[in-house]
Specification:
The N and C termini lie far apart (about 40 Å). This protein has about 230 residues and is mostly helical. It is about 50% helix and about 10% strand. Bound molecules: nicotinamide-adenine-dinucleotide and zinc ion.
Length: about 230
């Protein structure tokens, strides 16, 4: 951008999945000490999660998201029709964060998503369906509401990290061969079990989470063989 003579009056349009959104957002945040970014997410993961909330960053081999900055987008533009070409594995990965939103904020939404997985994942138009649009809108509302009440993650916003403490470790140890959403699914299943065992979640919570993730075709346990010590 410098070589091309872009100045302080430029803006960045982040057209792509979460990786593009995080990287383009980071560039916008730091170029000339900050120019506007418009997020145009094209993966389900980016639509319901990565493009919302102003977190930008890049992954390194020493850990995820360790280099980054808060930079809120000037606008987020979502068109679910582009999901027509998104590979099914990537759609499933986006479902992981949708399940997370239900678990942390809205039980009715969680149950609704869990009962409509077949429709959402149908290879004949599930991802571009009206049902998916409604789910995307609800997930954005949940995340935007949490972020607007705690932009800098002093408290409430930490709930959005459900599944990510273990998930990020699993993602790193897998050498990023697991998708972010797959690692988070494993993280949610295991953190759900932890939550029950230390008495902060009702019995049956972990099973309900695990069942819905499995119904979405997502992994819920460490792949074997896996270095447990490395994850710890
Ligand atoms: N900043 C945040 O708050 C936040 C939140 C969640 C996830 N993330 C980050 O987002 C990243 C994951 O995002 P992702 O799942 O979108 O991965 P991604 O950006 O790698 O996209 C997944 C794949 O789908 C392709 N793709 C995207 N849109 C497509 C379309 N419409 N049709 C066909 N192919 C398409 C991409 O080229 C890529 O190969 C992770 O690095 C994660 O840490 C950030
Ligand atoms: Zn995530």
């Amino acid at each position: 951008m410098l070589a091309k003579g872009y100045g302080r009056d430029s803006a960045v349009i982040a057209l792509g999945g979460g990786v593009v959104g995080d990287l383009a957002g980071f560039v916008a945040a730091t170029f000339m000490r900050g120019i506007p970014v418009v997020q145009v997410p094209t993966s389900l993961m980016a639509m319901v999660d990565a493009s919302i909330g102003g977190k930008t960053g890049v992954d390194t081999y020493l850990g995820k998201n360790l280099v980054g900055v808060f930079h809120f987008p000037a606008a987020v533009i979502v068109d679910p029709q582009v999901l027509a070409t998104l590979p099914l594995r990537q759609v499933r990965a986006g479902i992981a964060e949708i399940v997370k939103h239900g678990v942390i904020a809205d039980e009715a939404y969680f149950l609704e998503v869990a009962s409509s997985l077949r429709e959402l994942l149908d290879y004949k138009g599930g991802p571009t369906s009206d049902r998916m649009l409604a789910v995307i809108v609800k997930s954005i509302e949940i995340k935007a509401d949490i972020v607007s009440r705690d932009e800098r993650e002093d408290g409430l916003r930490k709930t959005l990290n459900f599944g990510h403490t273990i998930g990020h470790a699993v993602e790193l140890v897998s050498g990023y061969s697991l998708l972010h959403g797959e690692a988070v699914a494993i993280g949610m299943a295991l953190e759900g079990r932890l939550a029950e065992s230390i008495g902060v979640a009702q019995t049956g919570t972990a099973e309900a989470i695990t069942k819905s993730l499995q119904a979405a075709g997502l992994p819920t346990d460490l792949p074997q063989p896996f270095e447990r010590d490395a994850v710890l």
